[in-house]
UniProtKB/TrEMBL annotation:
Top-level lineage group: Bacteria
UniProt keyword list: DNA-binding, Transcription, Transcription regulation
Organism: Acidovorax facilis
Gene3D superfamilies (UniProt xref): lambda repressor-like DNA-binding domains, Umud Fragment, subunit A
Pfam family, one: HTH_3
Designated name of the protein: XRE family transcriptional regulator
Electron transport as UniProt keyword: no
Coiled coil regions in record: none
SMART domains in the record: HTH_XRE
Length: 234
């Protein structure tokens, strides 16, 4: 088997291992192994991506963990657990970052509840660890639509989010959820509990969110900070 095939196999095994761990949920590895009639070390090898389970074992895991078998096998079926638990996977010299099927609006917001992994995109581990300075795997890739962040980000560009960077005191562009819409915006903390939400495109006026006004509380949360962007040329 040539090197590219080995790398693909290792990446798939590592990604599958993450999904197996996610599907196991609150069960201990020992309990999961007992229900599957397998040795606990075998489960450990599956979850670490050392070995790949056969189809029957995958079906049994899906049944016990109450996960869609298609998602467990491929990662391409929507699952509530995917949205909460899928992480980037490090294998050799690469980190495979999940690309989620969500559109982060760079306009006035696009409503989208479909949050599933469509691919695991490879990045050099050295780039993420050293150039970006990210030492964890809580990362996600999402696509951009709209023009409110132009010329910085354009529609169809891809952005990498640091899902642990939710402190809006840090300068940068953040992914936010506002009234059910997903957006990429520049956030600035003002005195009090006020956030100014602004765009790069001057055609879009900034607006403010007042966290101290209980009567006008909005559905708002910071999802992460943009750490990298990939440009798409028309």
């Amino acid at each position: 088997m040539d090197r590219p095939s080995n790398e693909l196999r290792d990446a798939y095994a590592a990604s599958l291992g993450e999904r197996i761990r996610s599907c196991r949920g609150g069960l201990t590895r020992e309990e999961f192994a007992r229900r599957l009639d397998l040795h606990v070390n075998t489960i450990g090898k599956f979850e670490r991506g050392v070995t790949i389970p056969d189809a029957f074992a995958v079906l049994r895991m899906a049944e016990i963990g109450k996960c869609p078998p298609e998602w467990l096998l491929t990662g391409n079926v929507k699952s509530d657990r995917v949205e909460r638990n899928v992480r980037a996977v490090e294998s050799g010299d690469y980190i495979y970052v999940p690309h989620f099927d969500v559109a982060m609006s760079a306009g006035n917001g696009v409503f989208c509840d479909v949050e599933r992994v469509v691919a695991m995109r490879p990045f050099e581990a050295k780039f993420i660890r050293q150039e970006l300075g990210i030492g964890h795997n809580e990362l996600a890739l999402v696509s951009v639509i709209g023009n409110s962040m132009e010329p910085l980000l354009r529609s169809r560009d891809t952005t990498m989010l640091d899902l642990l960077a939710k402190d809006v005191l840090t300068e940068g562009i953040h992914a936010i959820r506002l009234d059910g819409a997903l957006m990429l915006k520049q956030l600035q903390r003002l005195p009090g509990k006020v956030l100014r939400v602004s765009s790069s495109n001057p055609e879009y006026a900034p607006f403010e969110i007042d966290g101290s006004d209980e009567e006008s509380q909005r559905d708002f949360s910071v999802l992460g900070r943009v750490r990298w962007g990939g440009v798409t040329f028309n």
